Amino acid sequence: TIFRLAQATAGTGIGAGADPLFLFGGLITDEWLSGDTFIQRNTEDQRIFDDRNTFNAPPFRAINRVRVQAGATIEALRQYQPSPATNIARMFAFIAYVEVLAGEHYCNGVPLSSFAGSTITYGDPLSNDSLFALAAANADSAINNLGGADSARVRWLAQVVKGRALLDRGQFAAASTAVAGVPDTFHYDVTYSVVSGDNQVWALNSSARRYTVGNGDGGGLNFIGTRKDPRIRTKTGPDRIFDTAFNLQVTRQGTWDRTSPVRIATGVEARLIEAEAALPSDPTTWLVKLNDLRRNTLLYPPAPVDTLYKPGAGTVLADTTDPVVQTAREDLMFRERAFWMFGTGHRLGDMRRLLRQYGRTEATVYPHGAWFKGGNFGDAIQMPIPFDEQNNPKFVQCTDRLP
Predict the structure, then answer these.
(1) CA dist., res. 223 & res. 237, Å (int)
(2) Angle at the Cα of 201 (from 200 to 206), degrees rounded to 5?
(3) Which of 178, 192, 253, 259 has the least C-beta neighbours within 10 A?
(4) Arithmetic mean of pLDDT, 237-257
């Protein structure tokens, strides 16, 4: 189950077209651009909604494998090794986590099928909100099954996942309550090794140049920017992207190398949830929480050994200021989330929330207009459920494509 979670998030090189969700889902957003020749990555980057895109199936399959295998593990642990109970809690937390990922990345209508032995029970299509409700309930099950070694860390994981699910539901006060007490320095990681498989953010961006860090194309955030933000250190060139038909130098991220762990839930996220909950009625607390994080250099990703990545070691973020206008405050809130949680599967859910919860328009949130490889951006605001799911007799396709 833990290996499947590593596959589902930042990948482990399980075969051609098996891009992990954190990368492939990030192509729709402003986090990544396709540096590739493969049509599957290009159409995803261009925001073309295509349920027959063959690269769409592996990440969807991977998160469902986590869910199904974690459920089977719970049954086995209860029967054969019920102690320490925290092992059971961890599986509930994993289920909750991938349910959140499914709700944030895919259109409404995701079916959750299951199996017992060799018998498949096909799932009914569920709305994104129903997935978030299930995730919150499974996070509660994790919290209620704690006991033994590692209990605190699993509790904090479950708290952050629950807070994220409630935030997705627009239950801001409840989300803030859910994450209370999670330490700022907490992080729950998925890990990689040369033996079990590379961190695919490194493999597909830094090594193969199939992905390149977003540069503001289509009006999105420029993650390269002025190159003064230590939360995303980057290095541009001198070599070009893999698709050499385009004269674009590759921009590499400096956070992850071949075997670097990836943080899927953090105390930083907990504080950002609290800050967003405070924003409508208490902008003073909101700003304090943002700046407390910015001042704490222990929360920054480690600086790469390669000094060509900028900004260099020792760079400290200055305090941000209150832009006063509420929409500008919201922009700052989501910008801070984008930079703190870059490349960790949060951005697409946040962009959808800007439409769903804050009333923004698609053109003010998603990359739009002319696409850098030719033609224009499409209208995808989330990922389609893969065509493979047509094997489920209860499923047709998305019930809708609402944010």
Answers:
(1) 15
(2) 105
(3) 259
(4) 96
State the Cα–Cα distance between residues 278 and 176, nearest whole angstrom. 9
Domains in the chain, CATH or no CATH each: 2-391 (1.25.40.390)
CA separation for the pair 25, 22 (Å, rounded): 6
187-216 tens-digit pLDDT: 999 999 888 889 999 999 999 999 999 999
Rounded Cα distance between 253 and 68, Å, is 33
CA 366 to chain centre: 16
Q: How far apart (Å, rounded) are the C-alpha atoms in residues 388 and 378?
A: 23
Q: Which two tokens stand for residue 362?
A: 């698609």
Distance between first and last Cα of the chain = 30
How far is the C-alpha of 88 from the C-alpha of 157, rounded, in Å? 13
Contact predicate 147/85, CB 8 Å: yes
Characterize the bridge pairing of strands 110-111 and 125-126.
antiparallel
Give dist(CA 353, CA 349) in Å, integer.
6
Question: In 3D, which of 186, 20, 205 has the Cα closest to residue 105?
Answer: 20
Record the pTM. Answer: 0.96
